[in-house]
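INFO  loader      accepted 1 record
INFO  loader      residues=436
INFO  predictor   begin
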Amino acid sequence: MNIRDHIKDLEAKNQLIKIKKQVSTDYEMANILSALDTRPVIFENIKGQNTKVIGNLYSSRDLVARALNTKKEDLIHTLSKAINNLKTPKLIEHAPCQEIIEKEVNLKKLPIMKYLKKDGGPYIPSAIAVIKDPKLGRNVCFHRLMLKDKNKLTARLVENRGTYNALKKSKEDLEIAICIGNSAAVLLAAATSLKPDQDEFSLANALEKTDLVKCKTVNLEVPAESEIILEGKITKKTSKEGPFLDLTETYDHAREQPLIEINCITRRKDAIYQTLLPGLTEHKILMGMPKEPTIYNEVKKVCNCKNVLLTPGGIAWLHAVIQIKKERYDDANQAISAVFRGHNSLKHCIIVDDDIDINNPNSVEWAIATRFQADRDAKIMPEQPGSSLDPSADHKKGQKTKTCKVGIDATIPFEKNRESFKKIPYPKVDLKEYLD
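INFO  predictor   done
INFO  writer      dumping tokens
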């Protein structure tokens, strides 16, 4: 369902917290969102603003599943199916996101928030960016955006990724559309790593109907039902961006990054500004969950993969648990190699049998305790390309981050008697027979 229908669904079930007291975009709103963490919140009275702000909207797997009209346990299969069956979206002429067109741009009229005291400035962390690569075509992704002036933002562009490469190829400034207030389908699609020539909006449309509309001042298409669209260009100029809280809940340092100039804003008449609390649950879910089906699809090629989880303790990015049905001697070892192909930034993975509950950390730890021997079952891979998010990795200027990756085979040894590795449950009794 689109963002409006999702909000209505939450309201109907009394699951949307409404803050009517006047609040400030400077730290206060972020502190409230943090205190409520996984509970959706709408701020209706913001100091100096006329726009409502929604937060924690997709802050649990249950909420994401409801927004996609599926069940939590079916999410990985829903996402995997969509990735393998992309569907080109329809282009329409008139869209809700263009009900109001503002040629006189003043970004300071938007409730762009400050989150923590050390932030480099007010930030938009919840928007998706749309660009067109000169050779590969449309690319849709997330970039955190720091407010610089009434018509300027600075974007964090990760080196050697889609937007960075497109800007590098372009001889001139690169057109960009920034979309705020999006469905779960659009957000998950933007966070999914498809092949360079595949379209993320086709993934969103495979998850649910996602019509597009042509922008007013740039040659780009955006979701018709987004709340707010910022149209402009990524310039060859740079400006200081950061520091800002990252997925690891640690600060990312300041650096020189490309400056974006906004020349037009389109929006709904009663637009709702969607925010995202950096580093906390919703950020982890929206960034990490789309990697689970890409891991699943790779592991499925080499063995019978049942499920994948990027763990909360591993910041939903660096640690994964993979559940397989072991059918051959080398299945777990093959799975380890496939996992790292499915998610290049992953640092540690644990392979478990299909009797282990990957959503229960105690169950996973029990498998390591009883089925794993480090000298036999650990696969250690030093000096591998790693995640720039990992503060413990080796970061050298101008070079790809390096890390040591580890795969843990916590499955029952193939040649052993499987029954001797399984938990023995106590028989169940009817306590009514024994208790008054």
